Amino acid sequence: MTYVVPYSGISNRLGDDEIKAVGEALRQDTLAMGPQGKEFERLLAERLGSPHAQATSSCTTALFLAAQVLELQPGDEVITTPQTFWVTTWPLQARGCVIKFADIDPDTLNIDPTSIEPLVTEKTKSIWVVHFGGQAVDMDPVMEIAERHGLTVVEDCAHAAGATYKGRALGTIGDIGCFSFHSLKNMTTGEGGAFVTRNDRYAEMARALGTIHNYGEMLERDDQRIGPHAQPAYYKDAHVLRSYTHDYAGGRYLVGNNFRMSELSAALGIVQLGKLDRLNERRREIAHRLDDGLSGVRGVDVQHEKPYAHHVYHLYTCFYDPEVVGAPKDDFIRHLQEKEGIEIVIRYFPIHLLPEFRALGHRYGECPVAEKTYFEHQIQLPIYDHLTDAQVEHMIAAVRRGVAELGGGR
Ligand SMILES: Cc1ncc(COP(=O)(O)O)c(C=O)c1O
């Protein structure tokens, strides 16, 4: 079907400046581990006001690094939100952690801080929040709970590049922030992400573990030889040089991975980062126009920007009321898709109800707010930087027509 307002698979519209930057990077001696990556990291750290930012191949790999540097162990409990893309929890599952789902705030769809504390036990180690759709989680109460119980906090900022909480960049409030620069995100490097932290030790660990090194506490060896062989002067590789001079204390070390971003992605990221405010401003303009057009439609509520948040509208969420309209949400979505040509992608199916979590005993009824909101109310309309005014007006008119046709708003 050709949509009037398509949604899935739509990236930022790139310009000549992105094409030029990537073209120049293609002429470099190296396409990996070169100047673009270093510059992108420097600019990103500066932009976020963070001492450390490490470019990664995706947000998923940044999240895997987060779980690894926090040294989460099998059986450790981690509290997170059910209203996210499932990959938020994958590094936790991979490490054998026990995942506890807090419920959400039905307006922001973010984790509800009041539902976190009842889940804390002596096994809880960390809280993983997701700034849903580009609007900040209410971080102060989350950080207070974390401090009270000695927990770390990871911010999944996949939707939230450029968003703030009380003026502070998201990703810099908890212990670690993980960003996505996937093609669909507010700024893109094609595929890509970043691991951000204020903690020097986490930064040092992530730098090693994400770039094909391993990590462990080292002790200097008495004998600086391997058998009869002394260290040759021509070796450059620190890892090999250390083999002559050091041992891992207790033999214990963490195994690294290759989560690096390529030079081409970083070159694209440098240009996109320079446009981030403009790209976000365009999303905010569209969101405010939709808010204005939809407020006053009985049976549809708009989402509110919290006073503490600068919302960057990676997603535009609104709420349908089946009781007011007199028809279930699915009928309304069918109207928007089939009659109005608006491609609807609802994010996200509450992840505690995915088969892998049901197999662990999670069940319907565990997070009633997330469930009711998802099954009955939440809708996302398409949003991206190059939506036209005509498409935006079409969505407003289509929502009004849909509600009227389904019987509504009476
Ligand atoms: C909340 C959330 N976390 C993590 C990710 C993973 O991002 P990436 O595709 O960069 O691995 C996504 C992707 O959409 C996401 O929405």
TrEMBL record:
It comes from Actinomadura verrucosospora. The keyword Membrane does not apply. The modification N6-(pyridoxal phosphate)lysine is found at K185. Its cofactor is pyridoxal 5'-phosphate. The keyword Transferase applies. Belongs to the DegT/DnrJ/EryC1 family. It is an enzyme of class 2 (transferase). Keywords: Aminotransferase, Pyridoxal phosphate, Transferase. GO terms for biological process: polysaccharide biosynthetic process. This is Glutamine--scyllo-inositol transaminase. The lineage of its organism: Bacteria, Bacillati, Actinomycetota, Actinomycetes, Streptosporangiales. Coiled coil: none annotated.
